Amino acid sequence: MITKVGVKVALIPFRPKLGCVDENIEHIKERTELALDQKARVILFPELSTSGYLLESLVFESAITLKDSRLDYFKEQSRYADICFGAVVQDNHRFFNAALYFREGDLHHIHKKIYLPTYGMFDESRYFTKGETLSVFSSAMGKTAILICEDAWHPVLVYAAYMQHAENIIILSASPDRGIENSGPDPDSFSFWEMRLLVYAQSFGCRFIYVNRGGVEDGVRFGGRVIVASPLLVEKEWEKEEIVFVQIDNSELTRSAMIGGPFCEENFILNNKILQEAEVIRKQFEGDKFV
Predict the structure, then answer these.
(1) By CB count within 10 A, which of 39, 143, 201, 203 is most buried?
(2) How many CB atoms lie within 10 A of CB 32?
(3) In angstroms, rounded to a whole number, what is the distance separating the alpha carbons of residues 241 and 223?
(4) Residue 12 is part of a domain; what is its CATH number?
(5) Does residue 162 form part of some domain?
(6) How far is it, in rounded angstroms, from Cα 23 to Cα 288?
């Protein structure tokens, strides 16, 4: 089912203060009010908006539980618009890098980051437990899935959302600027995101809505960029902390579906069989080095 045309979405490339959860939540509330004043139907904040990214030993004190009274405001305001932001969530004595999606007066959906980067400056698996599920849910935009940053670099998760008939895939990100010495207007890291999401959108026939955090932590710069990539269109904004409003028009997805694409005749059972066989072969070659 395609949703009606004209869902107004607010993308907010928020700049959280590291470890200042109460202050960050108050700022998220303020920006939520501004977006509601402009009649937004969906309001999206980046990865780990309540805490900042480079937490390390601050993970424990930055965590919230799903019964935290500070979430009550967002439950109430979600009667008027869907609201989503990233947070450290403590669940069953474990800590997750999670996205909380509020809708119709309740916490409607939770996505726990599945792929935790542990390379270069990233050390997430040392502090967080990985999520193990990905599911599509209903939103004001239609059938929706959420990925968190590194998740989106693993096409199998995009494929899993596609197989559940996702119309929109939200990506909350805390991606630092890298490759800023190039001659173009964007750092390499942002250009990579733009190219990847456009290929995904054209391949899978769904929309990708990306919101990255801004600000600086420990000398690491986060660009505060947003991207909306549809099969027939890509839009982007950067260097802002202001609210970026976009109008979601699902007729683009209808036109794309009529055209068709390489994934229109996917055989999930066959693909799963091939992947299982590939895993067996991969294990046979473990330890081998490429030369």
Answers:
(1) 201
(2) 25
(3) 10
(4) 3.60.110.10
(5) yes
(6) 50
Instruction: Evaluate whether residue 235 is within a structural domain.
Output: yes
Which residues make Cβ contacts (< 8 Å) with residue 260, sequence separation at least 6? none
For the whole model, what pTM was predicted?
A: 0.89
Per-residue tokens: 67: 């019964």
Give the separation between CA 113 and CA 105, rounded to whole angstroms: 24
**Nearest alpha-carbon partner for 243 in 72, 36, 47, 101:** 36
Q: Tens-digit pLDDT profile for the chain (291 aa)?
A: 333 458 999 999 999 999 999 999 999 999 999 999 999 999 999 999 999 999 999 999 999 999 999 999 999 999 999 999 999 999 999 999 999 999 999 999 999 999 999 888 889 999 999 999 999 999 999 999 999 999 999 999 999 999 999 999 999 999 998 655 555 555 566 788 989 999 999 899 899 999 999 999 988 889 888 999 988 776 766 556 689 999 988 666 655 554 455 555 678 788 889 989 998 998 888 766 544
The C-alpha atoms of residue 4 and residue 206 are separated, in whole angstroms, by: 15
- Domain assignment of residue 289, yes or no: no
Rounded to an integer, what is the distance from CA 243 to the centroid of its chain? 17
Q: Which domain holds residue 207?
A: 7-284
- In whole angstroms, give the CA distance from residue 87 to residue 100: 7
190 found inside a domain = yes
Element (H, E) at 27: helix 21-37
H-helix or E-strand spanning residue 87: strand 82-91
Domain tally, the chain: 1
Element (H, E) at 256: helix 251-259
- For residue 234, how many other CB atoms are within 10 A of its CB? 16
